[in-house]
Amino acid sequence: MKIQGNTFIITGGVGGIGSEVAAGIVKNGGKVGIFDIVDTKVGNEKIASYGDKAHYSKVDISSSADVEKAVAEVVEKLGNLKGVVHLAAVSIKREYTNDLADSIEDFQKMWQINTFGTFIVDAHVADAINKPLNHPNGDDKHADFWTTDEERGVIINFSSAAAHGLYSRTLCYGPLKLAVNGISRTLSDFLGPSGIRVNTISPSIVMTAMNATLGNYFQDDLTSHAAFPRVPVPASEIFRTVKFLIESKWINGEDIRVDGGWRLVVNRPKGETDARSLAPGLE
Predict the structure, then answer these.
(1) Domain assignment of residue 18, yes or no
(2) For an engineered disulfide with 25, which of 30, 38, 58, 277 has Cβ 3.0 to 4.6 Å away?
(3) Is residue 283 part of a domain?
(4) What Å distances lie between residue 142 and 131, 193, 201, 234, CA to CA?
């Protein structure tokens, strides 16, 4: 799939990684539909430098109606929709205690946004790409099942290194990102007949504004448990991986780890402080 001349939706598109991905797509000749939760005025200011190559929509990705409306706007304003880079997610942190039920509310909210939201976004983007063939008469009647050998779209969902190293600090976040991998793998098979590829990217720590205050903790962990390089991933490197997946026709149903070989572990040396108590919070 070419970037040039095509439109891609970027969820979380005004954030650190999202803005880097959006800028990269525009620089490579594409257009971007930016979804985020900031007010429309702020969002439009963020994308002003892209001119007519971008459209901003304030979107709650856990709302099917919100996403469906916003996707339709992108198709109308920019045209030629070919995929989505789905970055939007939340990480809710609380202090460590031995009470497990304290995390139930956090789990529910992260599930609603990070996991259910992934399915919603993917479904509406895929249906928008397929609409001319799924509903050739422009109504709600489904066309007969069809298949194609044409590459027609690309979906890239963002998982996390936490999905591969399920441990206690990411009690809710890790399993729910693992569910994103499962959704993506299944959708790659479901959407294969319609020529839409689905993959995931699993980064380790990317030093964005969200993680800026946690730098020392994560740097210590990367130094101890990553292979190489033992530093946070630059947002620019994430775009390189996005570009690779958009342009690589033969990559489908895969998860790419961008983590420098970081492996999530919990050290519990006998007689010393439990390392979890030093963590930035239980997610």
Answers:
(1) yes
(2) 30
(3) no
(4) 10, 16, 33, 44
154-171 pLDDT per residue, tens: 999 999 999 998 988 899
Question: 1 lies in a domain?
Answer: no
Q: Any idea what the CATH number is for the domain that residue 100 is in? A: 3.40.50.720
Phi, psi (degrees; rounded to nearest 5) at 43? -60, -45
Domains contained in the chain, number: 1
Q: Which residues of 27-55 are buried (b: 16+ CB within 10 A; e: fewer)?
A: eeebbbbbbbbbeeeebeebbeebeebbb
Q: What number is the average pLDDT over the span 257-276?
A: 84
Q: What is d(CA 3, CA 144) in angstroms, rounded to the nearest whole number?
A: 30
pLDDT digits (tens, 9 = 90+) for 13-32: 999 999 999 999 999 999 99
> What are the DSSP E strand ranges found in the chain?
7-11, 31-36, 54-58, 81-86, 153-158, 196-203, 255-258
Mean pLDDT of 86-91: 96
**C-alpha–C-alpha distance, residues 87 and 10, integer Å:** 7
Average pLDDT of every residue of the chain = 94
Is 2 part of any domain? no
Contact by Cβ (8 Å): 195, 153: yes
DSSP symbols for 17-49:
HHHHHHHHHHHTT-EEEEEESS-HHHHHHHTGG
What's the pTM? 0.96
Domain span at residue 53 reads 7-278
Distance in angstroms (rounded) separating the CA atoms of residues 29 and 25: 7
Burial class (CB in 10 A: 0-12, 13-18, 19+), 246: buried
